[in-house]
Amino acid sequence: MKYTRLTKEQFEELHQEFINFLATQSITADEWEDIKKNKPQAAEQELDVFSDLVWYGVLNKVEYLEHISPQQIHLFKCKEKNMHLIALKLKHNKADLTTKDGFQWLRDNLLSDDVEFYNAQKDYSDDKHLDIFKLIQQGANITRGDLFQYFEKLIGQ
């Protein structure tokens, strides 16, 4: 498995898609029950293959990621050949950016010396999707990119 297996809840949400996936392999509902019961390793493999297909579909559509921690914000734009990063770092523990009050503090003090900005680009490794997946595993969230676009205009990119 390349990524990670979907959770039970995710499988439940994608129940119909999983049925369609099994159907593309000519596996009926009765055959699936038999595989789960008598060939658990084969069933595990099917779950893993389906999970990877779902993850690939999701990762293929990712344009923006955000990772917000108490003292830093990392905003990523996932382009074709590389990733553009805009990062903000608080020099002092004056606020917790994961809270509403902390975010308001950032708005009020954005251009102060207490906030450092970083701007960088990084080429993907041999596997763009795996690079994006690793960021998600580290806590990044897929977004529409509103924050990235705001800061991109602010720093004049």
From TrEMBL:
It holds the Pfam family DUF6495. InterPro entries: DUF6495. This is DUF6495 family protein. It comes from Winogradskyella alexanderae.
